[in-house]
Request: fold
Amino acid sequence: MYELLNTVNSPGELRKLEREQLPQLAKELRGFLVESVSKTGGHLSSNLGTVELTIALHYIYDTPEDKLVWDVGHQTYAHKILTGRREAMSRLRMAGGISGFPKREESPYDTFGTGHSSTSISAALGMAVAAQLQGSERRSVAIIGDGAMSGGMAFEALNNAGAMDANLLVILNDNDMSISRPVGALNNYLARLMSGRFYAAMRRGSEKVLKGMPPVLEFAKRAEEHFKGMVIPGTLFEEFGFNYIGPIDGHDLDVLLDTLGNLRNLSGPQFLHIVTQKGKGYPQAEEDCLLYHGVSKFDHTQGIVAKPAQDKVGGRAARPTYAQIFGQWLCDMAEQDERVVGITPAMCEGSGLTGFAERFPLRYFDVGIAEQHALTFAAGLACDGYKPVVAIYSTFLQRAYDQLIHDIAIQKLPVLLAIDRGGLVGADGATHAGSFDLSYLRCIPNMTVMAPADEDECRSMLYTAFKLDTPSAVRYPRGTGPGVAVSSEMRALPVGKGVVRREGRRVAILAFGSMLAPALAAGDKLDATVANMRFVKPLDVELVLRLAREHELLVTVEENTLQGGAGSAVEESLQQQGVTIPLLQLGLPDRFIEQGEHAGMLADCGLDANGLIMKINSKLT
Ligand SMILES: Cc1ncc(C[n+]2csc(CCOP(=O)(O)OP(=O)(O)O)c2C)c(N)n1
Reply:
């Protein structure tokens, strides 16, 4: 079935193929991708869109000597398959298997590790400058989507690269989609560029620009024959100092090969604009590329079967995810208070904002993949009387740390961060884990930081945070919780207070957020006291002191790195009060945790009930 594909185990072998064989290879690669991803889950639409580009790049460039840097890296499955990892695709994103993103330690062809967006131009520029300094002719190519291009870092890098003469090629893979519809002025600009309305004017500009550059002129003339006069300069990218080529059809191998072949020989900053279709070649994904952006396992002969609106599990309604609970709360809050505005950096669906966006379109802001801007934009709104709620994944909030401190916390602005994907996230692995937020949030003055242990508490915490009128964060995990029914009431919790959930002897377990469930299970086995601490900041010091007085051992447990986390807060408070008591701090270890299945990953870290029992027992004896 994959006769030709099976013969290609490296780009070296790919380069031995005749050009005429490449369309067949693309066809087989696409079939393999659909079949393979349907068995493992993963990103599908973006990968189907980059099949021809990946083949053409490895065919023309001398990889891995020449460097390909993929932005975000979710579109690198074809690249993995062609660089010796075809068989490893059966364990994509699984424990012990290959990552869903490029990873330097996985292959020499993965030149730069990614997962977060908008880094490729900076990294490829660094490599291009390194080549220049080393007197090498090797080339560096950044491949970046139109969504990732909306990130500020991409512009910082363009600004830098355009004023240098390093041999950098930036390929803009324009499929007119981010995860959902792309937003912003750049996107409008690209659409206008594509529409051809500006074509004539640009064409005149093009001749002017090309005249002084004979190799480009020659290339442009040849290219013109292929794509019937589609070579136009993009004013914006030209202004940045790049030589702009495009837009060209990113699924036409002939055009791609000719164009890249020419660009490979040009020096200085080059910009190639290609147009692709997300989901290309799999009709269901072409139809609904959002649904097929990130998929779980499915039957590829049928496609994803839509779930009924009220999904039933064993006769009961399926549990809502924390993201859905947040989305519902935001709608309810917005009904009550017209100062509520909702902000997302390009993660509408994942953050549970679809309903809010539909019901409150004027108070909903998708700002693009721009976390830094999202926070400072929220700060601005807060300055003038609004109550901004920023829905953001823990891992992406890392991008906006200074904005949180400098623009929000110092000014004590009432911005609420609804932080999703706190803790380990499973198949996406280390780049997407929300392992650090409790540590990096609790050291910021003026912040209130909460972690819910169940769904109902999540809603109450969001309301509590909203009522505070100071900077606050509610941090909840990916997916579903323990299944506690969510009250429709808006109930505020007492600030800085935890609750004892189980009274026991000798040992007191102080659980934060998602760790309450295993703590309660361990508490039952050990007859230990278990407290749901609720607040990481302000910490319930009174409760900590009482538990210290009444027990022989305190145990803190959190789904956050041990360094500087909630357990450290408990330790600091004991120190400050001059209380000495054995303290066992449990949490994520000081290493990056690779992809896997969430429960297994927690167990590996000793954060399931059994792990807690073992560690507590060994501390007691
Ligand atoms: C800093 C950061 N924020 C958000 C994301 C989540 N994310 C992953 S892919 C994606 C869309 C990327 O769109 P584009 O670059 O156009 O690539 P496409 O999927 O369309 O091929 C987003 C928002 C991320 N990876 N990194």
Notes: Residues 22-40 form the longest helix (19 residues). The two ends are 61 Å apart (CA to CA). The pocket of thiamine diphosphate is lined by residues 46, 49, 72, 74-75, 116-117, 145-148, 175, 177-179, 278, 346, 369, 371, 396, 399 (CB under 6 Å).
